[in-house]
Amino acid sequence: MERRRAPADSRRYGQRRFWDERYRREGAEPREWLGGLSRFLPQLQPELRPGDRILVLGCGNSALSHDLHQLGYPDVTSIDFSPACIAAMRARYAHCPGLCWAVMDIRALAFPDAAFDVVLEKGTLDVLMVEETDPWHVSPRAAAAMHRVLAEVSRVLRPGGCFISITFAQPHFRKPHYAQEAFGWSLRHVACGDGDGGAGAFHYFLYVMRKGQPLDPADLALGRRLHQPPPAAAPLPPPAPPDDDEDYLLAIQL
Fold first, then answer.
1. Whole-structure pTM value
2. I want to staple 189 with a disulfide (CB 3.0 to 4.6 A). Which of 105, 184, 207, 237 is the partner?
3. How far apart are CA 28 and CA 174, in angstroms?
4. pLDDT tens sequence across 40-86
5. 34-43, 87-96, 98-107, 138-147: which range is least confident on average?
6. Number of helical H runs and strand E runs in the chain
């Protein structure tokens, strides 16, 4: 089956040049994908301890790292592949010596094994899926990119540590990527959001992976399904180009 190309407006979110230009315009003025810390703090805080070494993947110009620091988690390292972003964030939060900023690719983390108690991402992994057009049959390239990042996350997590992923991606699309036995972690999720479930409601999912705990059999089966070849199917109609900002995350839902 021939794969359609994603709209150009979506593909730009995977390009370093796009983000560098954006951060040069915006600087470190806080901008939140999927909302600020207060939106998901009730689900996040039970997973954290004050002494945790926390790594934030793809920090962007979110205030998440600073807000965690202010809440009593002083050891926070934040990375992004955009030098413009990291320069702006380092300058903005120079008054917080416990915050560490580094330019880094999430596919090749320059940290030793078992360096962190918590790895946290909010919308960052969704960028790996921006070129996908069929949520049920992710391309081998995107699946491999996701696997590479998750393998790095597992490597830098200490035994007993947790990886927390906050995303619009629904469980039937995202859990197969996370539910890989090779990562050595368990998997659970909770649906969060605002509103009463109507058309105007805002919903996202918080996934928690605990290093050293086993996967449930049902999750193991989901993970194996990811490696099965997709059945032949009729091409889908072309999607409407997503708008800017969070709409691209809603559009892919992977």
1. 0.80
2. 207
3. 30
4. 889 999 999 989 999 999 998 888 999 999 999 999 999 998 888 89
5. 34-43
6. 9, 7
Task: State the residue for tokens 């120079």.
Answer: 94
For 15-37, write each residue's pLDDT tens digit: 556 655 666 666 556 565 666 78
Task: Give CA–CA dist 215/209, Å, rounded.
Answer: 9
Name the CA dihedral angle for 86, 90, 93, 99, rounded to a multiple of 10 degrees: 90
Which two tokens mark 108?
A: 């090749």
State how far the Cα of 248 lies from the Cα of 127, in Å rounded to an integer: 9
pLDDT tens digits along 141-172: 889 999 999 999 999 999 999 999 999 889 99
Q: Identify the three-state secondary structure at position 77.
A: strand
CA distance readout (Å), 140 to 66, 133, 136, 217, 228: 36, 13, 12, 24, 11
Burial class from Cβ neighbours inside 10 Å (0-12, 13-18, 19+) for residue 5 reads exposed
How far is the C-alpha of 203 from the C-alpha of 224, rounded, in Å?
Answer: 27
| Residue 176 C-beta-side C-alpha neighbours within 13 Å | 17
